[in-house]
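Duplicate of earlier report; Cytochrome b561 input re-posted below.
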Amino acid sequence: MINLTFLVKSDRMNETVSSPVINKTGYSHVAIAFHWIMAILIVVNWTLAIVIDDMPLGPDRITGYSWHKWLGITVLFLVSLRLMWRATHPAPKLEIAMPLWQERAMQLTHIALYFLMFAVPLMGWMMSSAEGYTVNYFGLFELPNLVDKNKELGDQLGDLHGFLAYALSGFVGIHVLAALKHQFIDKDNLLGRMSFSSRLKKD
Ligand code: HEM
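Output:
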């Protein structure tokens, strides 16, 4: 059983601390680089999937799907590295006073995002294998097939891949709205924890 408690461990402030509290700590530069590179890749790949879906069968659609698979495998590779990094580098101390339920909701959203960043591309790779299409990463080398060819299984994995991708975009939506609320309504500089700004102390 993998121990994922490292994802929720962080020191918290007492919520009775007088507001406004302006955050002064932040994630390490490695964690910030992982965050923004992956955020861009995920948004680009999601947009690509929607665009390809409307394309007629032809060379452009095939090229689009190749890029969709390559970017997805890159996300899978990066999230694996990121989880290993995170397991050994705890989140910086949360200096912002917020109700415990809000902090728990934030942690649960982060766990859901990590799970889905892993599960969505993995299901895509498994679907491709079940449909009999071996993934050739950027035309450089072939990835192993994760399951044997099986059309019915391929359809089911395709449905699961799509469902999880919608769940991922739902959690991303919640995550972004929460970040914007902290930035513009609470004005507590939570976003500063995930920015390269040199004014913050990086844990
Ligand atoms: C405009 C888009 C985004 C903004 C403004 C944003 C903002 C933030 C901020 C401020 C944090 C730090 C929260 C804290 O104080 O602990 C954070 C953490 C995180 N974000 Fe985002 N984010 C965005 C997009 C995304 C996307 C697209 C994903 C993944 C699909 C993502 C996944 C995560 C995860 C997993 C964490 C937790 C990091 C950790 O503790 O290891 N974010 N984000």
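The helical segments are 29-53, 59-88, 100-130, 151-186.

Merging into the original ticket.
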